[in-house]
């Protein structure tokens, strides 16, 4: 009987330690952006996605990548403190790419969720 009580107390302690661990949590204000129509002759276009660390530990963006070389994400290299905001700037290069586009940007973090997918869309109007 003593063993059962000891085991229950040990299990309870282990559970409380696991629950007390700090974790970062990323939440974006928006995950999709539509540029609508872009004139190819005007060059690159950018949009800034803002996020907040809703967790109780520093948030680290470990990597951000796009599914095309025409899309470049820029992200903070320093940790984002709990309760603070950060930004990811996404630049699309329309040169030589007339027509509709839809590009995914993959953001990897040390928090929850571990991966977030951002999306940019639009239509490139070719040079006259």
Structure description:
By secondary structure, this protein is mainly beta. It has one domain: Immunoglobulins (Immunoglobulin-like). The protein is built from 1 helix and 8 strands; from the N terminus they run αββββββββ. The strands form 2 sheets. A 4-stranded antiparallel beta sheet has the order 1-3-6-5, with no helix packed on it. A 4-stranded mixed beta sheet has the order 2-8-7-4, with no helix packed on it. The protein starts with a helix and ends with a strand. The model has no long low-confidence stretch (mean pLDDT 91).
Task: Show the helix and strand layout.
Elements: H1 2-20, E1 26-28, E2 32-39, E3 45-53, E4 61-66, E5 71-74, E6 85-92, E7 99-109, E8 115-125
Parallel strand pairs: 2-8
Antiparallel strand pairs: 1-3, 3-6, 4-7, 5-6, 7-8
> What would you call the structural class?
mainly beta
| Helix count from the secondary structure assignment | 1
Principal-axes shape call? elongated
Widest beta sheet: strand line-up: 1-3-6-5
Name of the CATH homologous superfamily:
Immunoglobulins
Radius of gyration: 21 Å
Class in CATH?
Mainly Beta
- According to CATH, the fold-level topology is Immunoglobulin-like
In N-to-C order, the SSE pattern is HEEEEEEEE
Flag low-confidence runs.
none
Beginning-to-end CA distance, first to last residue? 86 Å
Write a compact overview of the structure shown:
A 4-stranded antiparallel β-sheet has the order 1-3-6-5, with no helix packed on it. The chain is 15% helix and 47% strand.
């Amino acid at each position: 009987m003593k063993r059962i009580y000891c085991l229950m107390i040990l299990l309870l302690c282990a559970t409380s330690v696991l629950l007390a661990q700090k974790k970062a949590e990323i939440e974006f204000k928006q995950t999709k952006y539509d540029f609508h129509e872009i004139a190819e002759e005007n060059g690159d276009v950018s949009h800034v996605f803002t996020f907040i660390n809703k967790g109780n530990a520093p948030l680290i963006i470990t990597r951000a990548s796009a599914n095309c070389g025409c899309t470049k994400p820029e992200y903070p290299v320093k940790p984002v403190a709990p309760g603070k905001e950060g930004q990811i700037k996404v630049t699309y290069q329309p040169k030589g790419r007339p027509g509709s586009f839809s590009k995914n940007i993959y953001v990897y973090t040390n928090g929850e969720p571990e991966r977030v997918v951002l999306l940019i869309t639009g239509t490139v109007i070719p040079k006259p």
